[in-house]
Amino acid sequence: MSDPVKKKTAREILKSHELFARKRFGQNFLVDEDVLDDITEASMVTKDDFALEIGPGLGVLTRRLSEAAREVTAVEIDTELIPVLEETLSGCTNVTVLNQDILKTDLKALIRERNGGKPIAVVANLPYYITTPILMKLLTTGLPIRSVTVMIQKEVAERMIAGPGSREYGALSLAVNYYTEPEIVRTVPPSSFYPRPKVESAVIRLMKREKPPVAVEDENLLFRLIRCSFNHRRKTLVNGLLTENKGLWTREQVLSFLEEAGLPPMVRGESLSLEDFARLTNVIGYF
Ligand code: SAM
């Protein structure tokens, strides 16, 4: 398929529509063919698949997904890019563009209507200003999703794959590992985008787990405990839990939770593995 985006540069396409890249929508358009190929390949999308793209921008990745997938829905917030996409995606008959905010899109209904409720693949060069809310929506709301292959800030990708004790380890690492098996596919320099972002980027693939690696009675409590410990990184876990849950437990009670979960009294949350948090959740859940 001839690619109208390849013939013109991103800058020329924007200029011909009298547009500029909009910072407030996180618009850094991919202009590197190799990176586009690598994202598409890493997504493992085939002609059996329905792919959801978040933020198609000028449509470069969308065109590749259109060739790889059975059907593509691309959700773009910027109304000014819709006429551009009509041009750059002309001939891509299996692509639907929705002019919507992905955070407000009813994805459950979309997947039901367009893919019979069966698991979909999500692929995107994400707008970095809302990476975490988008990923939390995709991972924690019980949507039928098989995999999420996305470009994000390299620093955020490193936080996602970090383990206990490292500086990058935090609530995001634990949430990602609870729901998925993450893998950094490659890093991407600022020169692969127009305009160039200030930071390095990385493509990460999150394969959704069939079931979490730990069993907890109360998932909400697990994530509440995780938040409590990382909101107070410098404090011991006991002090973090007491500060965040004022009046709920006494120090003696919290110390006894830790003891029952096999954790030392002075432990800091940042050294706890997902398994440790799960044990503590189940101890407190039975309290
Ligand atoms: N996919 C294109 C590419 O790789 O060149 C564009 C990627 S650009 C980093 C992010 C895109 O997401 C932009 O097109 C931007 O307008 C869009 N976007 C930003 N916020 C959004 C939101 N809340 N919902 C849907 N799209 C959004």
Task: Give short descriptive properties of this protein.
287 residues, alpha/beta, Rossmann fold, Helicase, Ruva Protein, domain 3, 2 domains, seven-stranded mixed β-sheet, binds S-adenosylmethionine
Question: Mind explaining what this structure looks like?
Answer:
With 287 residues, the protein is an alpha/beta fold. The protein has two domains: 7-208, Rossmann fold, CATH 3.40.50; 219-286, Helicase, Ruva Protein, domain 3 (Orthogonal Bundle), CATH 1.10.8.100. The chain is built from 13 helices and nine strands. The chain has helices at residues 4-7, 10-16, 33-43, 60-68, 82-88, 107-115, 131-140, 154-161, 171-179, 219-231, 237-244, 251-260, 274-285; strands at 29-30, 50-54, 71-75, 95-98, 120-125, 145-153, 180-188, 193-194, 201-208. It has a seven-stranded mixed β-sheet with strand order 4-3-2-5-6-9-7, sandwiched between helices. α5 links the parallel β3 and β4. The chain is elongated and about 70 Å long. The chain starts with a helix and ends with a helix. The mean pLDDT is 95. Residues 25-30, 54-58, 60-61, 75-78, 101-103, 125, 127, 130 line the site of S-adenosylmethionine (SAM).
